[in-house]
């Protein structure tokens, strides 16, 4: 394995592994398609658990920097796949990175029957069971996102047993059903009456609405409608040739 200086120990263990590999990628140590260090090698090098290494690799994968093939290994991503991207990030981590406090108010968490349109998008039959959660995320006590999410039980059978006041659906789903593909739609729109009430805003207040659908190989995982008050949200992106 190529030798590079290790990141400073002030970083969380998973962040040390992640930064080490990102620097190696940025310096061209692993050209597109090259096999990256194995989980066992990284566990031995950093003296951390396999779960810690797995989180680092999973975040690199969701950022489009590596490809992971079960039973084979981790590979540097092809350049065309990382040229322009929207990254799936855990809202709790975003808020914590700003030094603020995140909490969540669970409005709904139940098993329902999927109507035809929803069933088609989740690879189910009309009337099949689907998991439904409605959660308001707050930053320092201020509502910043209304998350209305449907989950395919085949992808995350224990989803409704999770305490979403302690972990976010995004964090949990990335652990149990790593994303291979994501589709987004983003628009400026007015909230529904219920969304306006939950966010504490006027029904006439403009919002940024993100609808995201993810899948793992050929299995759809989830569809989420994420509504953010326009005055409290900014969409950022990055481009690299």
Keywords for this structure?
Arc Repressor Mutant, subunit A; single chain; Chorismate lyase; 10 strands; six-stranded antiparallel sheet; 241 residues; alpha+beta; 7 helices; two-stranded antiparallel sheet
Topology:
Layout lengths: L12 H14 L12 H8 L3 H13 L3 E4 L3 E4 L7 E2 L5 H7 L4 E12 L2 H6 L7 E11 L2 E10 L17 H8 L4 E9 L3 H7 L7 E10 L2 E11 L8 E2 L2
Antiparallel strand pairs: 1-2, 3-10, 4-5, 5-6, 6-9, 7-8, 8-9
Helix pairs in contact: 1-3, 2-3
Q: What does this entry look like structurally?
A:
With 241 residues, the protein is of the alpha+beta class. The chain has two domains: 13-85, Winged helix-like DNA-binding domain superfamily/Winged helix DNA-binding domain (Arc Repressor Mutant, subunit A, Orthogonal Bundle); 91-233, Chorismate lyase-like (Chorismate lyase, 3-Layer(aba) Sandwich). The chain is built from seven helices and ten strands. The chain has helices at 13-26, 39-46, 50-62, 91-97, 116-121, 169-176, 193-199; strands spanning 66-69, 73-76, 84-85, 102-113, 129-139, 142-151, 181-189, 207-216, 219-229, 238-239. The strands form three sheets. The protein has a six-stranded antiparallel β-sheet. Helix 1 packs across helix 3 and helix 2 (39-46) crosses helix 3. The longest helix is centred in the N-terminal third of the chain and has 14 residues, at 13-26. The chain starts with 12 loop residues before the first helix and ends with a strand. The model is unreliable at 80-86 (pLDDT under 50).
């Amino acid at each position: 394995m190529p030798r590079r200086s290790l990141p400073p120990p002030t970083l969380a263990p998973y962040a040390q592994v992640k930064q080490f590999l990102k620097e190696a990628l940025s310096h061209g140590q692993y050209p597109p398609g090259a096999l990256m260090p194995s989980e066992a090698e990284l566990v031995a090098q950093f003296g951390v658990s396999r779960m810690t290494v797995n989180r680092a690799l999973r975040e690199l994968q969701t950022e489009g920097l590596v490809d992971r093939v079960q039973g084979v290994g981790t590979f540097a991503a092809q350049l065309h796949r990382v040229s322009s991207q929207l990254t799936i990030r855990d809202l709790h981590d975003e808020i914590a990175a700003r030094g603020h406090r995140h909490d969540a108010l669970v409005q709904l968490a139940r098993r329902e029957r999927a109507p035809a349109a929803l069933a088609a998008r989740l690879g189910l039959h009309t009337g099949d069971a689907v998991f439904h959660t409605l959660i308001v995320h707050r930053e320092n006590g201020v509502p910043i996102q209304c998350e209305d999410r449907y989950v395919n039980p085949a992808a995350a059978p224990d989803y409704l047993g999770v305490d979403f006041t302690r972990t976010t659906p995004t964090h949990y789903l990335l652990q149990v059903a790593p994303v291979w593909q994501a589709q987004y739609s983003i628009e400026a729109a007015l909230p529904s009456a219920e969304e306006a009430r939950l966010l504490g805003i006027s029904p006439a207040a403009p919002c940024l609405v993100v609808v995201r659908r993810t899948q793992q190989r050929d299995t759809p995982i989830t569809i989420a409608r994420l509504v953010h008050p326009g005055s409290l949200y900014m969409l950022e992106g990055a481009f690299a040739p």
